[in-house]
Every structure is written in C-alpha cells, then in structure tokens.
Amino acid sequence: MLLYHGGNITIEEIELRPHNRFLDFGEGFYTTPERKQAERFAQITVDRKGGKAILNTYEYDEQKAEKLQKRLFPSANKEWLNFIVKNRRGLYKNDEYDIIIGPVANDRVYQTINNYTFGNLSIEEAITRLSTWNLYTQYVFCTQIALNTLRFIKSEEVIQNG
Q: Cβ distance 138 to 31 under 8 Å?
C-alpha cells in the first residue's frame, strides 16, 4: 500500500521527533493513503513555514506490521472523538500503540470538536455533525518499529494549479 506525507522537505530517513503542538493521534509520523490530502497538507506547511510543497511517497508493508500494536478507528465515532480530544489536550502519551489509523480531524470539523470539548454539544450531537463529512484517513506511526514498516519510494514537488 502506498502512503503519502506532505510537507516542505524530502524525508527519506524518518525520525520520530517531538511535536510543538497537540495533534489528532499524538506524536508520530503522519501519513495518508489519499494523495490529494497529502498535497493539500504540503501546501499548508509551505504557507506556515515557507519552502516548496513536497509530496513524499512510501510503501507500507502491512505484513511487517501484523504483529505491531495498532489502534483502528473505522469511522468518526465516540471512541475516535474522545481519543482526539484527549490528544489535543496533551493527555495521551502514545505509550499503547505502534500505529494508529483513523479519520483526520481537519480544519472543516475543528469547530464541532471544539464545541464538544467545551461542553456546547453532546457527544451524540457532535458525532451526528461529524458524520456529514467525508473525512480522509490518516496512518500515524508512533514507534521506531512501526517506522520500519515504511520504505521511502520518492519525493516530488507539488505544483499548485491556479
């Protein structure tokens, strides 16, 4: 399976680095099987940090990953939402899983998650609102052993149309 990582640099040798902000699934190396999502994130990174939009492509060896500890969120459900909120509050330390797979809580759903986090929506109302969105999938590699399931294929500059 091919996975993509969008950013402003080529990443052939992946290293786990502490993040400077709280992300959906905590610290780790974020990828997606959706090329367009990675291209979009590359552009967001360039807008924030400068440089050129770069799409990195990796081959994910699912057989190598079979024995690793994985957490799969098949949809934006209650468990997923509570996990996202816990991570965004900095309360999860990625000490249970090697790989976490599930929907991306992108900018389009940020307001719904915030309203739930601050008690303005019940979990049922938040899930109902989130279910109207077609959310991309992300694969987050949280440990070095998980990173060993990825093989760098190539990087390319993302050319924006318009």
A: yes
